[in-house]
Amino acid sequence: MRQSSVRLIEEALLYLNDLLIEKTTLKDFGFFLNNGNFLKVVDTLEKFEEGLLDKDSPRAREFILFKRQLYAMYEVQNRSVNEHELFSFEVERHNLNWLYNANTEFVQEMHRVDQNDQLADYAKLGKDEVFRRRALSPRRFKGIGAFASSWAFYSYAPYVAMYFGSTVPVLGAVFAGLYGMLQFSES
Fold first, then answer.
1. Cα-Cα-Cα-Cα dihedral of 133, 135, 140, 143, to 10°?
2. Does residue 25 sit in helix, strand or coil?
3. Could you give the C-alpha distances from 97 to 91, 92, 109, in angstroms and in order?
4. Global model pTM greater than 0.85
5. Of the residues 55, 70, 89, 149, which has the fewest C-beta atoms closer than 10 A?
């Protein structure tokens, strides 16, 4: 009787080890976080790490990294609102200065690149030449399309008025015309 219970315990432990190996290789954080008693999970993971892993192998390093990520996720998941607020507003002034300086340098670099591009464009111009703007930009094309739809609303107003009433085609033509003027205008 005692041997069968020992064998059942060994089989259960082997199954648990196989399950741990499977869930850690899949990086299934949800399995460990939603397991109910997280302290038992921690104890099991610690015993698994002590007994079964060679600390120098890449697989052991992956397991330790997974364990650290799991602990950090548990800590974040179980913080109070005040702890979340304190943690999320805890940004060092040095880091803010570094970000500000990096952003300033990026803006200056982009400005310099734009100036170089503009100088290269002017260098390509010949004597007595100027830049020409496209006559029909995409925005102006939308304006022409809106004018055309305004004309269509107005010309088919009697047909549309039979279905929707007399105000809908007139308001549609007016708004399409206004939108056309806005899109076609210079800014």
1. 160
2. helix
3. 11, 9, 18
4. no
5. 89
Provide the token pair at 90.
């805890």
Q: What dihedral do alpha carbons 155, 158, 164, 170 form, nearest 10°?
A: 50
* Structure-block tokens of residue 102: 């990096």
HSE toward the beta carbon, residue 155, CA cutoff 13 A = 6
What are 92-131's pLDDT values in tens digits? 666 777 888 888 999 999 999 999 988 888 888 877 877 7
Q: Which residues of the chain have pLDDT under 50?
A: 6
Rounded alpha-carbon distances, angstroms, from residue 95 to 72, 99, 106: 22, 6, 16
Asked if 46 contacts 81 with a C-beta cutoff of 8 angstroms, the reply is no
SS3 120: helix
Helix (H, G, I), strand (E, B) or coil at 12: helix
Rounded-to-integer distance, Cα 44 and Cα 20, Å: 9
* Distance separating alpha carbons of residues 153 and 167, to the nearest angstrom: 11
Name residues whose C-beta falls within 8 Å of residue 168's C-beta, 6 or more positions apart in sequence: 160, 161
